[in-house]
Amino acid sequence: MREGREELNFQKSDSAEQRRNRALRFAILGVVLSFSTFLGLVHRGGVFRVRRNDTLAVFIATVGGTTVIGAYEWELKTLAETVQQRGGFDPGEIRGRDSFKEVSEASGVSKKSLMKQFDLSEEEFGKPIKDVAMEREYRFDTEDVRQFISEQLKE
User: Taking a C-beta distance cutoff of 8 angstroms, is the pair 39, 48 a contact?
Assistant: First the structure.
């Protein structure tokens, strides 16, 4: 029983990348199973038949399975909620939907250094990273923000 608890705690401390990889594996498995079922690879009486109910069942099982194991979350958490839940900041958790302001507050990197690095106005500082990047014809992206924050945290 004790080993099971330790294993569960280990899974809760998985990195965001490990969770995404696990979710991706389940999604790929679901797509492969759904596609093979859709093609009617179940042979009956010399005729391949499409069994749509099986396809739906495999899809529901895949979505349900990834939800149960925690690899897929139905509601998006803010960066601050993620940091609070994890007990620390991980630059890998920065998403394009996060604003520069949220990143600054969650990471502790100063507003001034972010604004200087990405040449932001006050208005842009409150906008999601992906929106500012798009307005600037993608001269930077979310990964650039992650790298900058990582470098700042090392100093």
Answer: yes
